[in-house]
Amino acid sequence: MRKIYVLALVLLYAATMKAQVITSPDKNFTMKFSVNADGEPVYELSYKQKAIIKPSKLGIETKDVPSFLRGFTVTDTRQSTFDESWNPPMGEQKTIRNQYNELLVTLSQPAVDNRFIRIRFRIFNDGLGFRYEFPSQKNLNYFVIKEEHTEFALAGDHKTFWLPGDFDTQEYHTTTSKLSEVRGKMKNAITPNVSQKTFSPTGVQTPLMMKSSDGLYINIHEAALVDYSCMHLDLDDKNFVLKSFLTPDAVGDKGYMQAPTQSPWRTVIASDKAGDILTSKLVYNLNEPAKYKDLSWIKPVKYIGVWWEMITGKSTWAYTDTENIQLGVTDYSKLKPNGKHGATTAHVKEYIDFAAKHGFDAVLVEGWNVGWEDWFGKTKDYVFDFVTPYPDFDVKELQRYAASKNVKIIMHHETSGSVRNYERHLDTAYKFMVENGYNAVKSGYVGNIIPRGEHHYGQWLVNHYLYAVQKAADYKIMVNAHEAIRPTGLNRTYPNLMANESARGTEYESFGGNNPDHTTILPFTRQIGGPMDYTPGIFQTKISAYNPDNTSFVHTTLVKQLALYVTMYSPLQMAADLPETYNKHLDAFQFIKDVAVDWDDTWVIEAEPGDYITMARKAKGKNEWYVGAITDENPRVATITFNYLPKGKNFIATLYADGKDASYDKNPQSYAIRKIKVNSKTVLKQQLASSGGAAISIKEEVK
Amino acid sequence: MRKIYVLALVLLYAATMKAQVITSPDKNFTMKFSVNADGEPVYELSYKQKAIIKPSKLGIETKDVPSFLRGFTVTDTRQSTFDESWNPPMGEQKTIRNQYNELLVTLSQPAVDNRFIRIRFRIFNDGLGFRYEFPSQKNLNYFVIKEEHTEFALAGDHKTFWLPGDFDTQEYHTTTSKLSEVRGKMKNAITPNVSQKTFSPTGVQTPLMMKSSDGLYINIHEAALVDYSCMHLDLDDKNFVLKSFLTPDAVGDKGYMQAPTQSPWRTVIASDKAGDILTSKLVYNLNEPAKYKDLSWIKPVKYIGVWWEMITGKSTWAYTDTENIQLGVTDYSKLKPNGKHGATTAHVKEYIDFAAKHGFDAVLVEGWNVGWEDWFGKTKDYVFDFVTPYPDFDVKELQRYAASKNVKIIMHHETSGSVRNYERHLDTAYKFMVENGYNAVKSGYVGNIIPRGEHHYGQWLVNHYLYAVQKAADYKIMVNAHEAIRPTGLNRTYPNLMANESARGTEYESFGGNNPDHTTILPFTRQIGGPMDYTPGIFQTKISAYNPDNTSFVHTTLVKQLALYVTMYSPLQMAADLPETYNKHLDAFQFIKDVAVDWDDTWVIEAEPGDYITMARKAKGKNEWYVGAITDENPRVATITFNYLPKGKNFIATLYADGKDASYDKNPQSYAIRKIKVNSKTVLKQQLASSGGAAISIKEEVK
Question: Which SUPFAM superfamilies has this protein been placed in (chains A, B) (predicted)?
């Protein structure tokens, strides 16, 4: 008998040591999985023989049952391949290919009654996704996560584009530094926000974009974040190992789970070409197909809004200057209007007129409903009721007027972080929308979360945001959620989640400014998970023109604002500036009118995170192409190619260029517009100003 | 100028020192209010020249603005009187007199920009109520309460009937001890509960009942607890000073307030007659009149239920023995029934038949809906959906059947403490009730609260319970909430809040038993705030008769169970035992069938907390009287008078008495029934067994 035991041990040892290997369909990526001598799961990832992730441990630490950390043996492995193409209802390309090789490993813990979990790896031509799965079984039912211990051991001290890890905000400048410099730069990176909670001197957010010294571009994020807390990364800056750090709840726990269940996917996208990161659809491919049968009500939207005038301080969300409002008690008809309220019936009609005249689908109106006098920072529970307009906002008249002009009004639901209150009113609010002709809502989560102690990025809120989106679908309402969790490709599954903010948007140009390199980074970071409602289109770059007290200025040229409509993908695109300003620049405004918001295909012509991006896109179902080129504070010559145009044909391109003397800080409004002929062989050398850009619309030559 | 300042200071000093005095309409109570040298508000209360509350400080400590604790000067005082009578839609008496003298003191803090608060005192013939008021003013808007510092400085080391102070449960045995003994007895007093959180070795709950060595009965509680956290009392056991201790939220805060607002009323009821405590309506009088115009849909209910058989373990709430359920995922039709499910269509029909035969209004059915397999203790968020029946419970057929028998089914909503989930489903659940013929719901809050970190008795949940009651009113649904906050008279304002549990109910007779003195105390403690759904009527006192594994027994005689229908007031009264058992004792059951649940008037004949209670009540709108007499473990002779009967007339009384050899522990089911003639002069000496009782129904003699 002794011999048999020894043999069994040897076999077991062999089983635990034998690595499983899968490669991407194009063989560029190789992922190796094994279990080490302590029974810890370990994976590593390489790209063209270069290490992307060195051997890194996987595991979940639990609170109430034995942890899923060690003592594992591999009891089953299955490899499979998958290849399909799918068509998103809206997007950067008409068809997305979802092709991967899969390894599904079953890991048992003999010391825990043979309890088992699975880790599923999917390796694509653009990177790796993996997740933990907890199948239904006798010895596993409920468990509470104390921490997820997923490691990403990096191969070097990469250049990194990072935001401070925070449980409540992503509205930070991106800091660009080596990994070894994160700790030293953290203090400056943490700028004030009305709700924020950092957790570590080396904590950073995902999507995390990096570049190795040997020219590899690496992006780490997650996909399909559903009913789980958001993953941050804590950096071991001696060994360059990133470790998952989940957002805790009010009592410090990090996840409440019931088998069968699974974690979100952890994703590593990599390439030696920066542009490949921008066109990666890995995160979407790791999400489930659309849950709704009928998608006909979900449509791209180009919109303007009663919004920038409040952001700049020209007008106000609030109807009065009273600072103490109790909904249902305060009688607004007895309060003195402050004379600066933006969302008045007459003023909204002006926006509707402008939208109708220039072909916009919709007008966003913020500050239409009672409660804005003391809406955040008060830990106030019942802040808004989402259905009661201010006395000077006539819902029915505006419904009639907008419909007569074939323009939609976009509803605004600011929750002020008070999500119990929002959920209590959600059905009533959505019904009110349907009854009054609204089919899209911008929601907001400014301020600390109520229930108190919960965070914007914890499981509680992650659950809430999706609840609000799913319930909106019951009413055929499209959602654009601000200050919500950063996207993880869930708009594939729930396509009425049109866009999110979840980063420093254009509003910060009025709050001191965004860095000139900001929009050359966002497509590599924030937008890896989904569309951003960045709200470009600011032509009046000096905010003091609207509000003498506001010394902020937009940190781009006017033309760069145009280019953003191409480089910052969203099916929901705003022209954020005021009609009065657009009326002064109708020639430049023409580009915003023309540019598509939904695309057949997308090409990255040039890109370097933090420096520049030049992209071309073909309008969905039309023979129209749009090019956007942007640069950071450094002027540069963009080399714009046109090889994506059908060969052998000529096209008319309208070029919106920075003026020769343009620069974001001294002469941002200088621009020149000219028409040129282009074909697939054209190569255009185009000068971009400091934080400048170029925008091109291309149409077939009419003979 | 110097002189004037001195004069002003003297005047100020005089103002702060001059005590304000008010007395009760009958002059028995005197309350004195002053501000001490530190500017702290101080009150004291006496009854017939005996001190009830010695000088005690008042104040609120805040977190974010200067506290409301000291530096006060009295800037205004107003006295007024009030006297009205009102008729509750249901109750212990037809008409309630609300007569008090009021002192309203305005207190300013010169050092805090003359910020001011008010303290409103109302002094009744049965005691004192006072509250803090925070009027609307320029220098006061939002504030966060760190702690309320209301003191009740007692005049001695009183005998006290107390429960351990706890943020999550009141389901403790009452411990009877001197105040000085609380600390020593605390450890034994804290028995296990599925959700509990004690806070101090001398922390106790309200309503707190005490008796002084010179024979004063004193009760401390609160009234109109709305959007504020529940007050516990922490005892300084050297000085016998009780100090308010509010329930904290998940982050340790105790209240989020916005002016104008107010605290609940703090109440002190006192008398030299124990019975006066039982008949006090002070708590109700401090609540607002009914908020609903139409009360016609709110009616008393006598009911039976598919409940005790699950409590005893004879049958189960759950349909299967599977332990891992995911709503919307689990397919019950594929699971094996456990064969012990109580709420089957056929079985519920048997209950409906029994209810119809014996004149009950309704049948409570628990365990009808999916999810009971793993319903608590799992921190499970989505536990129940409140609308999906088990496969063996036919909602439509039971609606039809119950309606054909003129019996209502009472809905059951167990939330498992997951209040977000309940609120998300509330509208759907109430609509489902209306559509299926239900007009009353028993709700439950077993287990730890979700959102995690919140407590059953914090402001978050206090807000929720009332939200559920108010929303129920939109659907004309009556509510009986278990494990919710103990009542504070809110059923005056929201009369569809029919009853609460909020104490150790009859269910504990199956979980090891209640003390024989339990129901001689509850009317002095728990029921000061409102009706209790105690669910009496257990005839089969040996639980093993239903479940051989259950060794518990009911700690009363059968007759005491009858008497509880009189001594434990509720407009919602259950006959909790099984029809099969009642069928064996139809003679005794007759009392339950006869007894009223709504009353014209109530008389306490004899009472001593912890020892005995004898009460008589006149049925609402009928010439019928019911008497209940109970005793603790000590047999006694009750002296039952009948002077509340109309004079000069004879009546037939049916007396349900303990058998001569009866005792709760040895021979509980021994009883004797006889008819006697009584008139207003009759005095009946009636022997009560150990934890026994007597019940009498009195009707006019038919000639």
Answer: (Trans)glycosidases
Which of A141, A374, A454 is the closest to B451 by Cβ?
A454
User: Do B258 and A451 count as a contact with CB atoms less than 8 A apart?
Assistant: no
pTM of the model: 0.95
**Are A141 and B323 an interchain contact pair (Cβ–Cβ within 8 Å)?**
yes
Q: Tell me the average pLDDT of chain B.
A: 96
Q: Which of A251, A334, A450 to mutate to test the interface with B (most CBs of B within 10 A)?
A: A251
What is d(CA B364, CA B499) in angstroms, rounded to the nearest whole number? Answer: 14
- Total domain count, chain A: 2
Beta carbons of B447 and B195 less than 8 angstroms apart? yes
Pairing of strands A599-608, A612-619: antiparallel
Q: Given a cut of 70, is residue A334 above it in pLDDT?
A: yes
Determine the distance from the C-alpha atom of residue A331 to the mean position of all C-alpha atoms in its chain, rounded to a whole number: 40
What mean pLDDT do residues B369-379 have? 93
The complex's ipTM works out to: 0.94
Residues of B with Cβ-Cβ distance to A420 under 8 angstroms: 420, 423
Flag whether B527 is in a domain. yes
Taking the Cβ of residue A166 and every Cβ of chain B, the question of whether any pair is shorter than 8 Å is answered with no
Contact B274, B608 (CB under 8 A): yes
Catalytic residues of A, by residue number, are 507
Beta bridge partners of B676: B653
Of B324, B381, B423, the CB nearest to A136: B324
Q: Which of B22, B25, B60 is nearest to B43 (CA)?
A: B22
**Do B313 and B261 belong together in one domain?**
no
Same-domain status, B490 and B569: yes
Q: Which of B547, B580, B597 is the last residue in one of the domains?
A: B597
| pLDDT tens-digit readout, A95-116 | 999 999 999 999 999 999 999 9
**Would you mind telling me the total number of residues written for chain B in this entry?**
703
Q: Which residue has the tokens 């009452």?
A: B174
**Same domain flag for A266 and A310:** no
Does residue A210 belong to any structural domain of this protein? yes
Radius of gyration of the CA atoms of chain A, in A? 26
Whether residues B238 and B322 fall in one domain: no
Q: Is residue B506 part of a domain?
A: yes
**Binary contact (B381, A141; C-beta < 8 A):** no
Q: How does pLDDT run across B210-247, given as a tens digit for each residue? A: 999 999 999 999 999 999 999 999 999 999 999 999 99
A374 contact residues in B (CB cutoff 8 A): 141-142
Bridge partners (DSSP) listed for residue B500 = B481, B532
Residues A325 and A213 both lie in one domain: no
B378 touches chain A (CB under 8 A): yes
Q: Which of A258, A381, A420 faces B326 most closely, judged by CB atoms?
A: A258
Residue B689 belongs to some domain of the structure: no
- How far off is chain B from A329, nearest CA to CA, in Å? 10
Q: What is the CATH number of the domain that holds A177?
A: 2.70.98.10
Q: Do A451 and B250 touch (CB under 8 A)?
A: yes
C-beta separation of A131 from A264 below 8 A:
yes
Partners of residue B374 in chain A, C-beta under 8 Å: 141-142
User: Is B259 part of the contact surface with chain A (CB cutoff 8 Å)?
Assistant: yes
Percent of the residues in chain A that have a pLDDT greater than 70, as a whole number:
97
Name the minimum distance, in Å, from the CA of B142 to any CA of chain A: 7
Smallest CA–CA distance, residue A427 to chain B, in Å, is 9
Active site residues of B: 507
CB-nearest to A250 from B374, B379, B452 is B452
Domain range for A325: 302-597
Q: B199 and B334 share a domain?
A: no
B426 token code pair: 């509330």
Interface with B, mutate which of A420, A448, A459 (most B CBs under 10 A): A420
Q: Domain end: B272, B291, B319, which one?
A: B272
pLDDT digits (tens, 9 = 90+) for A70-91: 999 999 999 999 999 999 999 9
Residue A249: closest CA among A54, A63, A112, A45? A63
